[in-house]
């Protein structure tokens, strides 16, 4: 049982690292694309900058929200792992 528990905790740590890392990488790529498209749109139509900026900040907030949900799930799995009860049971 001790081997199964250590295997579960090790795999959970790897899964948490992948989840947080993928969230950070996805957010970084998303912000890069978002900023680039905002600058392209602002260069093409300078009079639309306020409208584009509002939409950019809304999408940036959504990008951060998705990442924070992933971080929340990862921390839940790390500190309150529901699978430990299955292994101990």
From TrEMBL:
Topological relation to the membrane, as annotated: Multi-pass membrane protein
Site positions for Reversibly protonated during proton transport: 64
Source taxon at top rank: Bacteria
PROSITE patterns: ATPASE_C (PS00605)
UniProt keywords, alphabetically: ATP synthesis, Cell membrane, CF(0), Hydrogen ion transport, Ion transport, Lipid-binding, Membrane, Transmembrane, Transmembrane helix, Transport
Residue span(s) of domain V-ATPase proteolipid subunit C-like: 14-77
TM regions (residue ranges): 12-35, 56-80
Subcellular location: Cell membrane
Listed GO MF terms: lipid binding; proton-transporting ATP synthase activity, rotational mechanism
Main subcellular location: membrane
One Gene Ontology CC term in the entry: proton-transporting two-sector ATPase complex, proton-transporting domain
Gene3D superfamilies: F1F0 ATP synthase subunit C
UniProt function note: F(1)F(0) ATP synthase produces ATP from ADP in the presence of a proton or sodium gradient. F-type ATPases consist of two structural domains, F(1) containing the extramembraneous catalytic core and F(0) containing the membrane proton channel, linked together by a central stalk and a peripheral stalk. During catalysis, ATP synthesis in the catalytic domain of F(1) is coupled via a rotary mechanism of the central stalk subunits to proton translocation. Key component of the F(0) channel; it plays a direct role in translocation across the membrane. A homomeric c-ring of between 10-14 subunits forms the central stalk rotor element with the F(1) delta and epsilon subunits.
Family affiliation: Belongs to the ATPase C chain family.
HAMAP family according to UniProt: ATP_synth_c_bact
Protein name: ATP synthase subunit c
Organism: Accumulibacter regalis
Classification of source organism: Bacteria, Pseudomonadati, Pseudomonadota, Betaproteobacteria, Candidatus Accumulibacter
Gene behind the chain: atpE_1
């Amino acid at each position: 049982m001790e081997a199964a528990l250590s295997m579960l905790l090790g795999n959970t740590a790897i899964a948490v690292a992948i989840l947080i890392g993928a969230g950070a990488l996805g957010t970084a790529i998303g912000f890069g694309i978002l900023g680039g498209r905002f600058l392209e749109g602002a260069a093409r139509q300078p009079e639309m900058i306020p409208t584009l900026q509002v939409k950019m900040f809304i999408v940036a907030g959504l990008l951060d929200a998705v990442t924070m949900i992933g971080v929340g799930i990862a921390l839940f799995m790390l500190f309150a792992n529901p699978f430990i009860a299955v292994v101990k049971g």
